[in-house]
Here is the input.
Amino acid sequence: MTRRTFIERSAGAAAVPLLASASSAVAQEATPKPTSNAPVGRKLRIGIVGVGSRGSWIAGLFKQHPGYEIAAVADYFEETANTVGDRLGVPAGKRFSGLSGYKRALDSGIEALVLEGIPYFYPEQAAAAVEAGCHVYMAKPFAVDVPAVFRMQALAKKATEKKLCFRVDYQLPTDPANQEVKQRIGEDALGGLAHIYSGGTCGKLPDPPVGPTIENLFKRAWYSHIGMSGDLLLLYDIHIIDGITWVTGQRAVAASGYARIVRPDPHGDRTDCGGVVFELADGTCWTHTTQLLQNNAVMYNLEADLMGREATAHLAYNGKVFVRGGPKHYAGAVSASIYADGAKANIAEFHRCVTEGKFDNETAHRSVDCTLTAILGREAMLRKTRLTMDEVIKEAKTREVNLRGLKV
Here is the structure.
């Protein structure tokens, strides 16, 4: 199952230094390899927050790994926490609900907190986990606005100091074929990078009217509200934006964009389609197109061409990857199951990092760059203008969500 298919099905149910000089470090880091479920020394007691749709699926993958005991679950909806808790064998007294359910999970004796709910809440939840001395594993995006990105950066640094893992679940970099392309690009396979083209397309998602509170959005429609999801570039396209950040070791320094809302009777503020041209620090031009429409479009879906003077490399979340031409030609391979295999690899790697004491937290470092790039692109698209990264960071615009009337 591709990520696009899963989301479509489950939706209905620079002004600041980087951590450990992340931009330069990313280009030199050891490439992560998928890790099998080898025999493990001990089980980690984990709590999972957000167990509807994808969170329930991820919980199943943790359950399959021999190195974990799911000791607690938390979801805003008590019924969801109980249903998934029954399936996972979590004791009734370790199932928590409401906005503060994650706090009770942290108090229940777990070692790690897994965040699979609404991204808007991740910084607060991650901060509580690190303060409690718990490791953190989270979906992406790990933040939806600039202040939250830098809060997460500080938390990742604090986690390293406290010898805690702070991992973001990006799947594309775990894929061997994409790793091979990255390695060859690093060996000058392209003869110098000239420009990049990438895209993301996902089918339509629910966008109902907001009720007396935003509770009705939590199950079906938080995707359609920028404050909770971050909009298209962060909600979905972040996969390929992260992939390009991973390969190039750069974040964008400027962006020009345009976006539209074209669905009838919109209730949320997310966009439906648009495009952005990023500028990287080395002058590379990067064009990205995006849409969230059910229209049978033929366009790149979490794929990218990195075009050099002598050759072109192709990254893909689902499909064939290759290097065409040049001194490092690579006929390629099909990356067909990154969504599931990548998640399994990250779950196994998280266990290894915790048990072997690997606390560099490189995925969080890279997340600063790719998330800032996505936010820059989003803001340029929404404002239909050109913005620099320095301007967006200095502005430090926050995205607010009205929590009035919700169950604590």
In short: The first strand starts at residue 44 and ends at 49. Residues 362-383 form the longest helix (22 residues).
